[in-house]
Specification:
By secondary structure, this protein is mainly alpha-helical. The chain has helices at residues 2-30, 37-49, 54-61, 65-77, 99-119, 125-142; strands at 81-85, 93-97. Helix 2 (37-49) crosses helix 5 (99-119) and helix 3 crosses helix 4 (65-77). The two termini are 25 Å apart.
């Protein structure tokens, strides 16, 4: 049992170090776009899921609804996202991208995919799939 606890602590430590390194590397590679990774990911998910409620896109990105709301406000001010009433629930709002927002989302997704490919070049295809599966399992267990 103690070995299992130590192994868990080592795995969490390694995960934490890797997560910080990945975020830093993404920021370095995508920073020239002038926007944060969470904001760009939110825009890309709105474009992919539209029309979508703020809470749904927050879950998809892995941020709080309050953070999503702040980011959406900025995207609306910049003319990249539109808020529209939900046809089925007048209290709710659905988000869609503008033409410019959709273009930026698609460009960012292309850049993001290229950066991810570069960052995980040290892993084989099967290792990437295994890593994605393990991280998904971990995230689902904590949700």
């Amino acid at each position: 049992m103690e070995d299992d606890k130590r192994a868990a602590a080592e795995a969490i430590d390694a995960f934490g170090r890797a997560a910080k390194s990945v975020v830093r590397a993404f920021d370095e590679r995508l920073g020239d776009r002038g926007v944060s990774t969470p904001r760009s990911k939110l825009l890309a998910e709105i474009e992919r899921l539209q029309p979508v409620r703020s809470a749904e896109v927050a879950r998809a990105v892995g941020i709080t609804q309050a953070t999503a709301s702040t980011l959406v406000d900025a995207l609306v001010r910049e003319g990249l996202v539109i808020r529209a009433p939900d046809e089925n629930d007048r209290r709710a709002v659905r988000l869609t991208t503008t033409e410019e927002g959709g273009r930026q989302a698609r460009e960012w997704r292309t850049d993001y995919t290229a950066a991810a490919h570069e960052l995980l070049a040290c892993l084989t295809h099967d290792e990437k799939k295994q890593l994605a599966g393990l991280l998904t399992k971990l995230g689902d267990s904590l949700a």
